[in-house]
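hey so u asked for the seq, here:
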Amino acid sequence: MAVKIVPARYKQAPCLRLENEALRLLVLPGRGGNIASLFDKRADRELLYQRPGDVLRPVPRGLRFEGAECAGIDDMFPNAAAAAVETVDGRRVRLPDHGEVWYRTLSARRMEDGVSLQYRSRRFPCFFEKRIRLSGPAVRMDYRVRHTGGPGFPFLWAAHPLFRAEPGMEVLLPGGEAKADIACAEGFVPSRVREAPLRNLPLEGGGILDLTRMPPAGMGCKYVLSRPVSKGWCALWAPKSRYAVEITFPPDRLPFLGIWMDARAGGPEEWQIAPEPSTQKSIHLAERSAADTGWVGSGRQSAWWIAFRAGPAHGAEPGGGIRFY
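ran it, structure tokens below
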């Protein structure tokens, strides 16, 4: 399918519209290459959470991510949690909330099947590049961090895709993933709970919660699978509307998978769900482990990718994967 790429506007901000026969994307180079819209033309369905309003929220003083637009698909790089860290060469660097890419302007270059977005880091010696490509009902993003001089350094990258959720939506995970580390659970999980079975999270006052399903209204939860994933695959499945979003990624480069589910605000039209493959289990860059993969050596580069495929579906295959119509 041919990909059409034209200038457009989203909430009065300039963007690029990428479109083929199946999908339409709106990409904001001025907001870190954020994908503000991922629209399934065949199903007439917007897949991403979009904050109400006609104008993009400005980037707030202090660079607090949740105070900005906080919608669509963003990248967390080179960190997630705000921190001051010491670099390999002894410099003290302050890292903003959710990284330094999401609020920056990226240079954009059109390609035959998509767009290339680049940013030169102001904190580390590297170029960050993201290539967004459309192919049928799928969008793939290829990433590259290219070192530009001096010592190598560690980094964290995590996807931050806020998909629209609906009641009863399920998270399908690779086989064998049985436990999760609870990063936060808004007001309904005992504070002593740090690890729990995916389908048996104890609640305050009794009862259990299945972490593979969208929580009831008024609840929200973020968790990370306790072990590195066995397969670079997960999916969002809406049994009521018979619709699925399949996420694939290289498990050797993105070994950790976090899930954010938010049914706290408003009605179901405000609910969000975010599968977040990552190079690192902890959101704190300094809390690294041997299984973390975010590192770029002097004069070298690091690369990875993530892809989303969406559409009406029969459901999940027994061995993993979605059986699309």
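The mean pLDDT is 92. The domain at 1-157+286-307 is CATH 2.70.98.10 (Beta-galactosidase; Chain A, domain 5).
lmk if thats what u needed
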